[in-house]
Amino acid sequence: MQIISDPELSHNVVKFWNPSISSCLRTIDSGFALCGLILPHNKNALVGTKGGTIEIIEIGSGTCIDVVKAYDGYVRSIVTIPNGDGFVTGSEDHEVKFWEYQYTQQPDQEFSLWIPSNFSYPYGHKLPVLCMDISSNGTLLVTSSADKNLKIWGLDFGDCHKSIFAHADSVMVVQFVRNTHYVLSVGKDHLIKYWDVDKFELLLTLEGHHAEVWCCQSIIVVILLSQDRMTFPFVVGIVLKSPFLLRKRKKKD
């Protein structure tokens, strides 16, 4: 199950979908939703809004149980931390914040949310943080921004491993390939790029779109959606082989 803002009524509606049957399960009033996340166990969902708040939604009842003021600017991205009771958010005011949560037995507050001390990156990007993702093993965080850069962060100590000038325009989406440290990034420069973020190396550039690329989802295939109304599927198996092909070519050279 995943959470999606209604593209026509995103200023006041959030929709819950069951992708296996392509059915909308529930529609809930909200603020101007920009990003969303369903937490483990499918009990609660988090919605980041244009007003800088995080709405906590109880999925079973379809009600908003709390609204937390997170930023002064838009909440642009939200991603869960693997194997932990936490998540990370990025915002229009350039800041990345780490959050922790827990379920309580108190009837008036069944869900508690807070920021641990010293767990924010206020000096990361120069322009709004547009997207982020965390590796499957929970060791690396990659953030993308309107400043055209990718930043790779270590989650053990919160240090920035590398800042990479990645695209010629805003980097709209960044996503790890599952169980690897390979990353896909897409940008307004019409390009899709494939990175090894352990070596900070560009492995592959995919061309084909003639307008801004806004979305990328890697499951069995990589699905790319663009403003030029064209959808390109790339088989992940082929993409995953590219680092090894590049290494072989380098050895021959």
Descriptive notes:
The chain has 1 helix and 23 strands. Strands 8, 9, 10, 11 and 12 form a 5-stranded antiparallel beta sheet that branches. Strands 4-5-6-7 form a 4-stranded antiparallel beta sheet, with no helix packed on it. It has a 4-stranded antiparallel beta sheet with strand order 13-14-15-16, with no helix packed on it. The radius of gyration is 18 Å and the shape is globular. It has 253 residues and is mainly β. 7% of the residues lie in helices and 54% in strands.
Mean pLDDT comes to 75
Mind telling me the C-alpha Rg?
18 Å
The biggest beta sheet, please?
Answer: 5 strands, antiparallel
Give the overall silhouette: globular
- The helix content, as a percent range, equals under 10%
Strand-pairing-aware structural class: mainly beta
Distance between the termini: 47 Å
Percentage of residues in DSSP E strands: over 45%
Work out the oligomeric state of the chains in this entry. single chain
Spans where pLDDT lies below 50 across 5 or more residues: 4-9, 219-253
Q: How many DSSP-defined strands?
A: 23
SSE arrangement, N to C = EEEEEEEEEEEEEEEEEEEEEEEH
Count of helical stretches: 1
Compose a concise summary of this entry.
With 253 residues, the protein is mostly beta strands. Helices cover 7% and strands 54% of the residues. The protein starts with a strand and ends with a helix.
